[in-house]
Amino acid sequence: MTIEMREGYEGTGPGAITPDGCAVELYERLPVGEEPDIVAAAVPAGAHILELGSGVGRMTHPLIERGFTVTAVDESADMLSRVRGARTICGPIEQLDLGGEEFDVVMLASFLVHAGDEEVRRGLLRTCARYVAKDGCVLIQREGEDYHTNVPRERADPSGFTVRVLSAKPLGNGANSVHVEYVFPDARWTQTFLSRPLTREQFESALEEAGLEVESYLTPDRMWARAVPRA
User: Fold this and answer.
1) Are residues 85 and 154 in the same domain?
2) b/e for 195-223, b at 16 or more Cβ within 10 A?
3) pTM for the complete prediction?
4) How many domains is the chain built from?
């Protein structure tokens, strides 16, 4: 099957690959990690979560198991076909139209706030601000501070695969082209994507532009932030 890749993005490996280079089968294999626990500790029990960029439901399913109601949004129908137990909406996040709906929690994970295109990032954050309730919160996952500088690097996951960040090449416009490889005993995937490094100050400024402000950082490395609508 031939797909039209987004400019600057590429993916290789078995199975369906989305226009931004993500392999559906790969994301079904990736372990969940501590993210659902971080989210659950930061929001009210039973909250209704708008998950922007849900993918195959790697975080959706653990959150549902913890008693949350989730509306999962992703632009890939292949990804959303793997989501169970949640309301699903297929389409670009920045064009999401849910009328006057509001949510206790809006979640933007997977480093999406680092979109290489600044206008896309603005659109993502505007969507976050549009759908969070006045007394709700937005949870955002950031890249680690050395994500673009500590390259090449690799990590052997206890579940039996290796992930390698092979390069992060500056493009001259503030964004980098990042190349990542995932190696399993029976398969190999690669992804090339655009990512824009953001200092803490740049990140907080981007939120302010969208009408949000950081209330707290949820982890010592400041990779997870809890933001609220600006007064």
Assistant:
1) no
2) bbbbeeeebbebbeebebebeeebeeeeb
3) 0.96
4) 2
In a domain, residue 59? The reply is yes
Which domain does 69 fall in, by range? 31-142+198-229
The edge-to-edge listing of strands for the beta sheet with 187-195 is 10-12, 187-195, 176-184, 161-170, 153-157
pLDDT in tens, the chain (231 residues): 446 788 999 999 999 999 999 999 999 999 999 999 999 999 999 999 999 999 999 999 999 999 999 999 999 999 999 999 999 999 999 999 999 999 999 999 999 999 999 999 999 999 999 999 999 999 999 999 999 999 999 999 999 999 999 999 999 999 999 999 999 999 999 999 999 999 999 999 999 999 999 999 999 999 999 999 998
**Cα-based distances in Å from 171 to 117, 128, 153, 226:** 12, 28, 20, 30
2 found inside a domain: no
Judgement on whether residues 151 and 211 belong to the same structural domain of the protein: no
Query: Do 42 and 105 fall within a single domain?
Result: yes
Distance from C-alpha of 77 to C-alpha of 22, rounded to nearest angstrom: 13
Residue 164 and residue 180 in contact, taking contact as beta carbons nearer than 8 Å: yes
How many distinct helices (H) and strands (E) make up the chain?
6, 12
Tell me: do 13 and 118 sit in the same domain.
no
The sign one gets for the Cα dihedral 49, 51, 54, 59 is negative
